[in-house]
Amino acid sequence: MIADWKIDLAIVNGENAADGFGITEPIYREFVAAGADAVTLGNHSWSKKEALTFIEHAPRLIRPINYIPGAPGCGSALVETKNGKRALVVNALGRLLMDPVNDPYGLLDREIVAHPLREAVDAIVVDFHCEATSEKLAAGYFCDGRVSLVVGTHTHVPTADHRILPRGTAYISDAGMTGDYESIIGIKKEEMLRRLTTGIPSGRFEAANGVPTLCGVAVETDDTTGLAIHVSPVRIGPHLEQALPLFWSGG
Fold first, then answer.
1. Residue 115 a catalytic site member
2. What pTM does this model have?
């Protein structure tokens, strides 16, 4: 995809890449080898305990910026794109229906002010990881006109509200998961249904391992402003309607 679509900046949310919970160093290395310029995390950042240590020597692995001070790793990263430009990638956790974290908005503002679009960097991408769509949309408007893209993650279900906000920032409430959609948000259906219908667990949650569908979001930015020109969902696989951008197919 990176070669065919001439992608300059590829970002993966990898917080559930290891059997549905967390990430391991070999998986992180696989993402980078495949062409990922940055790998963001979320509320499952530390579900695999090895992440607490290997993140210190994984400069492209970005945990939420609003973790309690002293957490290992960094909440943002400056990366060089494949066409030689500079991009800022920021990961933040929301606070509604999530574990307690620090204020994401003040920390987002600090990063954006320190690396202004068009002056210090050519693009800024914010992965806003949270449960409530209202909080994701609030982050979109908070960053509108100052970043290239605000993309929501965490709920595993792609939304249909992709658009460019009034001041030029691309936005989508949730990019969706990459995995087996014949599942319940990536988990094998049987145990999830058993717990929901009986209230009794009988085993651990396991990642579904059927044929995957890749979901994400694609953005084209203006070379002068760094703001969005086009935004489209990406869905490649057997289970969801295809939604490829017309500007990549010549339409």
1. no
2. 0.92
Q: Which of 44, 115, 129, 162 is catalytic?
A: 44
pLDDT (tens digit per residue) in 86-112: 999 999 999 999 989 999 999 999 999
Q: Distance between CA 234 and CA 108 in Å, rounded?
A: 26
**Which tens digit of pLDDT belongs to each residue from 11-23?**
999 999 998 899 9
CA dihedral 228, 112, 78, 75 (to 10 degrees): -110
CA distances from 135 to 101, 141, 160, 163, 199 (A): 14, 10, 17, 17, 30
